[in-house]
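Example 3.2
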Amino acid sequence: MMLCYAFMDMKSVLWGSHIRIFELTRSLGVPLIHGGKFTRLARVIKNTPMLLRADTILLFDYWPLPYDYFLFNSLRKKCDFIFDVADIPYLQPIYFGIHNFSNKTYTKKQRNFFSLISMSSTLLFISPSALKLLNTNLKGKKVIFVPNASNPHFFKKTQIPKKGKKVILYVGGYAPMRGVDLLVEAFNILREKRKDVILKLVGVNIPRKLRKNGIIIETNKFYPDMPKTFSESYLCVIPHRKNPYMDAALPIKLFDAMASARPIVVTNCYEMMKLVKNEKCGLITEDNAKSLAESIDYLLSNDSISREMGEKGREAVEKRHSWHHRAQTIIKNIN
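Structure, written as tokens:
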């Protein structure tokens, strides 16, 4: 049997790796053992019989504790470990422009990350660019590409709203290289031309200072709230600033927007740009405010094109980019 083992508490499903764990394990139909620093040991003890029966354990996240390593070393002779390299945490501060990150924390994240790689026989990467970004020798390891995806049963196909102001939606965290400030600048350019638009920024750490004319900030939304959030929008924007880390990214919100039948505007980060181009589900811009504003304006001014792109995105998720498809990729490659 396969089971999944997560180094985080799943009491509330939020963003990124939480959603990936939640949806992948559900699609795989396997048990998920999880917990934070103070709850995981009790859950491990409770689930020891199940762990002893497992022949495959899928590892998520990067903060194992000493008893986790003891457990893994005890099981390694009878069990294959698959490590889901959803992100590369020790590189994030460098490429996200985060400065309050100590060398001690960097070293610990790097050590934990490579410890999990060392003990695992199979590694899951979200894209070929992410594998290149790691820049290390993985001789003897099996690599499977498992991009992020969406759940088309959870994110329903809805019509783009025809009445009221047109909502431009951003979903995600706030960090310099995520491009939120760039999107705000683009929105200000757009507002000089048209007053029928609202920019909605949804994320737990979006700064309140960005709330100005026409900009709504929502910091209290969780995964269960997102279908309604997407359905209220006209289009979605992912304004990442271009760098090697963002070139490797395929964010979940990209697929959730597609599943919701919303056209997408993305900057020219490589993997994201390639997917949008192949699926014809949105527009690609340079990572500057003028280019971003022009692409948003084009979709807002062309309802039929926006609907067509949204339809193509929805179809792509149903046929190729659901969590069910990702689960089947894992099963096919480990059997």
